[in-house]
């Protein structure tokens, strides 16, 4: 009851923090997509390089988020910039990995048929590999996004703003409504965005390869 | 149409996957490259559409060196069907078939017409199948679409790499028959790769048997069966193969070539002498014995000569004139039927000009059969 009151009274603040949160997580995932998907495509044909790249991404993933934010501060100062930098790095792994898996999972017979029909390399990529791998790639983007929305709450510690700010202020002020307002909003945001991306994924995937509900 | 000259493919300079291969393929022929796995048959085929580039040697299509073409454009004009079908799962059947024409930026209406025509040809009605996805089709239907896709750009040449190997035996046979019919109707030049000698014998106008990157025999199925060049081909084809396909055994294959002829004016004593000398039981009566081909007048067996002491009696007086001549290209089954029906002991075999070429008796048939029936364990 008190929580609802809090939301009603601080409607504008929560909205503002949510938008900040969406901006930070969104920009990070977009940057990670622009880097991760092309990199994923480029390294598919080279096992050695792809192993190295995936390992690097794996190592980044093991760095505690708080530490990564701390590392980013000397480079970008405080605020949203270091947060976006660190979050982008986190988002890279699921995106690169899923892009790789998605392309590797394309039946070699289909690629052979495509070559045999006289498709060029770029035609094979855009007409065959991308449409067939899109569902798996989108899966990676969804994981990256949900994770990013979660970690963005911690970014408040380096002054990036977002819903994390409500949580930390709440903790220092012993204001439970404020803590819950930040935490619940962040969780709901993650669920909502995942749902929307799920719809996008379905739209992008051909009917011929979607798994039918049993 | 297609000619491979001195083609070599080697990946490590030492082992040659394809070794100095020469092959001439005529327009409208269906030729089968057959051999055990690793013999270079698929590599050879893939060099024709330059999915694989030869290490050395030249390949010509219609007299033009294919290394001068753009690889992708070359492939768009050569149909290609593979074992695992490789339909695009994210595209409808219609879009799958239209892939190559659309790559070539052909007119959409024309392409549409072509798709309808091809779906009709493979007996998957447009209305019902055009908007379906590959996974909604059975394996056999998918490969039919694979064949239709290969034909969509009206290529003169179609390459097929073990297209039916992954199908169940019944579907495989259906598709083989459909391919034969298609070939008859469309007259494409088809290069077909298989490891299955049965399939090769059934489909091929000509068969190239490959071993270690070389073609060791390039011939019609009949010739390969009857006159394998060496033991390998004989074993590969199977020693009992001829027996399994009696349609391919002709009268000339079971006849005895050595016949003893006698002039129609010769005496009985002379005939008896000949029979004794050659240790046989029948003589073929001709006008006059000569080295040239002779026309048959009649036939005389030992029974007809018994008890005749009169030397004035000539062959033409005693010979059996009511004889059933067998054309040399009549198939064994028909020969056996005629012999059974008319209860004939000796069937003279004649060529197209009615000249004697041999004789079929029970003994000659048994002799041939014991040669081709598989060897069994000894008792």
Offer a concise description of the structure.
The complex is a heterodimer of chains A (214) and B (379). With 214 residues, chain A is mainly α.
Bulk shape of chain A: elongated
Strand order, main sheet of chain B: write it out: 6-7-8-3-9-10
What is the quaternary state of this protein?
heterodimer
Largest interface: A-B, 23 and 30 residues
Total count of strands of chain B: 16
Structural class designation of chain A: mainly alpha
Q: Over the alpha carbons, how many angstroms does the gyration radius of chain B reach?
A: 28 Å
> Can you tell me the residue ranges of chain B where pLDDT is under 50 for at least 5 consecutive residues?
none
Q: How many helical stretches of chain B?
A: 18
Q: Could you describe the largest sheet of chain B, including whether it forms a barrel?
A: 6 strands, mixed
Q: What share of residues of chain B is helical?
A: 25-40%
How would a textbook summarize the main sheet of chain A? none
Which parts of chain A are unreliable, with pLDDT below 50 for 5 consecutive residues or more?
Answer: none
By DSSP, the count of extended strands of chain A is: 0
Between the first and last Cα atoms of chain A, what is the distance in angstroms? Answer: 41 Å
How far is the N terminus from the C terminus of chain B?
A: 54 Å
Question: In percent, how much strand structure appears in the residues of chain B?
Answer: 15-25%
């Amino acid at each position: 009851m008190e929580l609802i009151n809090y939301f009603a009274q601080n409607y504008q603040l929560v909205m503002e923090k949510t938008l900040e949160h969406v901006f930070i997580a969104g920009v990070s995932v977009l940057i990670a997509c622009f880097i991760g998907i092309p990199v994923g495509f480029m390294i598919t044909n080279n096992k050695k390089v792809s192993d190295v790249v995936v390992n690097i991404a794996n190592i980044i993933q093991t760095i505690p988020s708080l530490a990564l934010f701390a590392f980013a501060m000397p480079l970008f100062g405080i605020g949203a910039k270091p947060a976006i930098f660190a979050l982008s790095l986190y988002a890279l792994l699921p995106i690169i990995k899923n892009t790789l898996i998605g392309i590797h999972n394309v039946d070699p017979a289909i690629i052979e048929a495509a070559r045999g029909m006289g498709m060029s390399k770029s035609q094979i990529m855009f007409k065959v590999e991308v449409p067939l791998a899109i569902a798996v790639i989108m899966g990676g983007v969804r994981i990256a996004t949900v994770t990013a929305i979660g970690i963005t709450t911690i970014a408040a510690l380096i002054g990036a703003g977002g819903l994390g700010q409500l949580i930390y202020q709440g903790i220092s002020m012993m204001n439970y409504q404020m803590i819950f307002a930040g935490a619940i909003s962040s969780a709901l945001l993650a669920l909502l965005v995942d749902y929307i991306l799920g719809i996008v994924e379905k739209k992008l995937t051909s009917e011929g390869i979607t798994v039918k509900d049993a | 149409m297609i000619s491979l000259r001195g083609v070599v493919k080697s990946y490590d300079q030492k082992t040659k996957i394809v070794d100095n291969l020469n092959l001439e393929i005529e327009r409208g022929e269906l030729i089968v490259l057959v051999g055990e796995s690793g013999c270079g048959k698929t590599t050879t085929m893939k060099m024709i559409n330059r999915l694989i580039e030869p290490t050395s040697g030249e390949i010509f299509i219609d007299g033009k060196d294919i290394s001068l073409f753009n690889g992708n454009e070359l492939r768009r004009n050569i149909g290609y069907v593979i074992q695992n079908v490789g339909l695009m799962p994210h595209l409808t059947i219609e879009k799958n078939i239209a892939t190559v024409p659309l790559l070539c930026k052909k007119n959409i209406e024309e392409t549409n017409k072509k798709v309808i025509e091809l779906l009709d040809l493979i007996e998957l009605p447009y209305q019902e199948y055009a908007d379906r996805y590959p996974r909604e089709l059975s394996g056999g239907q998918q490969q039919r679409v694979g064949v239709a896709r290969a034909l969509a750009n009206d290529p003169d040449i179609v390459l097929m790499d073990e297209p039916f190997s992954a199908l169940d035996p019944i579907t495989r046979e259906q598709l083989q028959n459909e391919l034969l019919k298609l070939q008859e109707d469309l007259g494409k030049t088809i290069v077909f790769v298989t490891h299955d000698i049965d399939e090769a014998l059934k489909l091929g106008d000509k068969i190239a048997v490959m071993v270690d990157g070389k073609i060791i025999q390039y011939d019609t199925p009949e010739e390969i069966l009857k006159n394998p060049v060496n033991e390998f081909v004989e074993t590969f084809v199977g020693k009992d193969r001829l027996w399994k396909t009696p349609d391919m055994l002709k009268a000339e294959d079971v006849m005895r070539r050595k016949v003893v002829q006698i002039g129609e004016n010769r005496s009985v004593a002379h005939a008896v002498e000949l029979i004794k000398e050659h240790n046989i039981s029948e003589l073929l009566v001709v006008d006059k014995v000569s080295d040239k081909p002779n026309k048959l007048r009649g036939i005389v067996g030992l029974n007809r000569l018994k008890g005749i002491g009169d030397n004035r009696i000539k062959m033409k007086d005693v010979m059996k004139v009511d004889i059933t001549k067998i054309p040399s290209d009549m198939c064994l089954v028909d020969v056996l039927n005629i012999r059974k029906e008319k209860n004939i002991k000796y069937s003279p075999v004649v060529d197209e000009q009615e000249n004697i070429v041999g004789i079929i008796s029970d003994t000659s048939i048994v002799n041939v059969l014991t040669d081709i029936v598989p060897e069994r364990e000894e008792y």
